[in-house]
Structures are given as C-alpha cells and as structure tokens.
Amino acid sequence: MVRPAPSQPDALAALTHEIVECRACPRLVEWRERVAHEKRPAFRDEEYWGRPLPGFGDPQARILVVGLAPAAHGGNRTGRIFTGDRSGDWLFASLYRTGYANQPTSVRRDDGLRLRDAYIAAAVRCAPPANKPTPEERDRCLPYLVRELALLERVRVIVALGQFSYDSVARVLAALGAPLPVPRPRFGHGVEAHTARAVVLCCYHPSQQNTFTGKLTEAMLDEIFVRARALSDG
User: Fold this and answer.
1) What share of the chain in percent tops pLDDT 70?
2) How many separate domains does the chain show?
3) Which range of residues forms the domain containing residue 128?
4) What is the CB neighbour count within 10 angstroms for residue 39?
5) 2 domain-assigned
6) Which segments within the chain are labelled E, that is strand?
7) Per-residue pLDDT for 196 more than 60?
8) C-alpha distance from residue 202 to each of 49, 152, 199 (Å)
9) Residue 47 within a domain
C-alpha cells in the first residue's frame, strides 16, 4: 500500500519541527542557550526561545526573503526570525509599506503579524556568537533552506539580505540544480541574478550598521520589494 505524499502544509510543519529540535552545531547550541539563560537586563522577565528558528510566512509566497541568522536578543528571544530587533523593525515596516505584511511592526510570535505572498527564512537558524557563523555551521544548516525552498513551489524571487545570505542562496540554488550564472554577479544593492528556479535580488542587510550610516534608507529597501513584486508578476 502506497502512502500519499504529505500535503505542503504538513511537510512544512514537519520541517519546522525538525529545525526547532536541531542540535547539530555544538558551538551554536551552547551560545543560544547561554544567551537564553543569562538574558539581557531589559528582557530579564521574559522567557527566551533559545532554539533554532524555522521560516514563516505565506506558504503560497512568490517571494522568499533570506537573512543571515537570528539575533541573540531578537529572534533567539521571541522565537521568530527578525522579530523583536532593530533589523526586523526596518524589514517589517518596509514589507507593510509595500503590501506584503498586514502590520508594520513585529515584537513577538503571537502579535498578529501576517505575511501575504512572502516567506522569511535565514541561512543559519541559530543565533551565532558575534553574529558570525562559521562556514561549517552554514553548510550544516543550509539543507533546511534547500528543503524549504523546494516546498515553496511558487517562489519566483529570492531577496538576499547581505553578502552572507547571497553566498548561501547561491549554494542552495546549486543544490536544487539551478545555479547562478557564471561568472556570478558581484553582490550589490539591487543586483539581480536570474536562474532557472528564481531571480535572486540582492539587498543590503537592514542592520544598524547600514541603517544608521545611511548606506540603506527606507526608500532603498522599499524599492527592493517593489522590484520583487514586478519580477514575481512577470
């Protein structure tokens, strides 16, 4: 007797469970759990998530946003990528202005945020020390993103937030048989790389290092998602 293949929602739910239970990288496990125990004074009364973060959003999304990794006191605290940190403040505000989110802020997992036609994930699912995962940790984690993208069959545009994400997405697409062009386009804000699976659209990461210095402005970030919609509609 042949069992039917699981539905996409069931497959995503199973992948989510697998990600959340992962303990494959000892350094990252130790760090994320230590941060969750010690806490930041401003959040001392909160219960930290302290586990890996799955992706979230619209399962029928045509746009996938890929970040670097959870922030130690952001996603590692709240349990949802980009939720509860300054980078997320910028990202969700832009997604709201460009029609991909139902509200401009996200402070906790159950705050009512809903994404429309967009899904958000990270190259590395655990908060890394100094926000710097090793190449080995990245490569150990990337199969989750490979499987996630394979399940998100309608995705036509991948927004890569930062050089690390761009490099990671390149590896993911190669694993799916849709490599970036050779020579690979150099990362830069607004750079597009077309593949058989999706268009990769590069964007400066909305970190404070970029937003405080003016390297990334609200208008620049909004333009990325406006362009992403045009590409996904094409």
Assistant:
1) 98
2) 1
3) 8-233
4) 16
5) no
6) 56-57, 63-67, 118-122, 157-161, 192-194, 199-203
7) yes
8) 29, 20, 10
9) yes
